[in-house]
Amino acid sequence: MPVNLVTIGVFNTEIEASLYLMRLRDADIFATLSNTAYHQVSGAIFGAVPGFQGIWVQVREEDAERAEAILRLPPPAIDEDALAAAAEAATSDDV
Q1: Which residue intervals of the chain are DSSP H helices?
Q2: Where are the beta strands (DSSP E) in the chain?
Q3: Which of 11, 56, 82, 95 could lock 7 by a disulfide, CB 3.0 to 4.6 Å apart?
Q4: What are phi and psi of 85, to 5 degrees?
Q5: Residue 71: which of 4, 86, 6 has the closest Cα?
């Protein structure tokens, strides 16, 4: 039986779309990106190149409602202390 995918979000960059993709996968929702090949070839920014329609985040039709609800949630808070510690560890001379 074929899987019906629906687009639940369109993003300007593959990075932005990938962040949402990870949130969906963390919630055990199958998700994929579409329209990335055109973006990679053209280096397009949504609206800047005629015909570019953004990077699509797609999920199975039966997961769409739950996925849309997850994407409406605010992004997780960044732990500034942990981020600073990781940056310091990455730049230490001991590496």
Answers
A1: 14-26, 36-42, 64-72, 80-90
A2: 5-11, 31-34, 55-60
A3: 56
A4: -65, -40
A5: 6
